[in-house]
Amino acid sequence: MALSFVIVDDDAVSRRMLEGIIEQCGLGEVAGTADGGIQGEQTVLSLKPDIVLIDLLMPDQDGIETISQLRNQGFAGQFVMISQVVNKDMVGSAYHSGVEFFIHKPINRVEVEAVLSKVRDRLAYERHIQEIKRSLAKIDLFESTPAPKERHPRDVVKPILMELGIMGESGSKDIMTIMELLSRQPDPTAFPALKELYEAAARTNNKGDQEIDKESKAIEQRLRRTVMAALSHMASIGLTDYSNPKFEHYAPLYFDFQDVRLKMKAIEEELPADKGKVNVKKFLQVMHAEMLEKLKI
């Protein structure tokens, strides 16, 4: 997800450092900067960035007052507060004004990258939720139309697997089996431990009791390879086009973004395809949530 930033700080050195870190780390584009709160208001309202990095203490108008003014004028972007002051009252005021993320002075590259990556992931999640809400709103407009034919979990999961580029992987069948099993639970929203899911899926393969453990481990390995293949597919898309809608939607939703970045680096350096790590549980939990949303369970 390509993000736009505005930096509001009366310290020119800090502005240059932050701008350099954002662009060098591939976090997005700095659309503009301002050297004070009043000028910052005008710049933010004019450019409408996704994220505003704003200094807490500025001579003309402090960061908290500037944020308040911008909120009153309808700006809905994210704020990241920059401060070298450790004062509980001021931090409390910042939280009260809607600031959830802080960067401390002196500027540290590692901290800046970590904080802004978290903000980016939060925005990606919020935008995904908004997409779901918009889709549901469209459905509500047609409530008077005949009820559609009941959908099967496989009908919902298959398109997702195709988008992730893993429909042909052996583990895709295991994923569909697990999603079916989850939909049949007394409480379909519950998510059991992975070991329980693997064992339940193994039993559907008509394995005897003595073979359940062996088949469970085989399912675990197939799933890991399949999720890794999905990660590789997303990373390849991201390397080609970072703003690709498929990459923007699936990469931050199904994977830890740090894993995506590491995989992109591994592809660039032509490391072995199996190198890297994936969070299989998160992958299955997200797919489970999407399935429930689409099935309206």
From TrEMBL:
The modification 4-aspartylphosphate is found at D55. The keyword Phosphoprotein applies. One of its GO terms (biological process) is phosphorelay signal transduction system. Keywords: Phosphoprotein. It comes from the Bacteria. Residues 4-120 form the Response regulatory domain. PROSITE patterns: RESPONSE_REGULATORY. SMART domains: REC (SM00448). InterPro entries: CheY-like_superfamily (IPR011006), Sig_transdc_resp-reg_receiver (IPR001789), ST_Response_Regulator (IPR052048), YcbB (IPR013972). It holds the Pfam family YcbB. The keyword Isomerase does not apply. This is Two-component system response regulator YcbB. It comes from Paenibacillus phyllosphaerae.
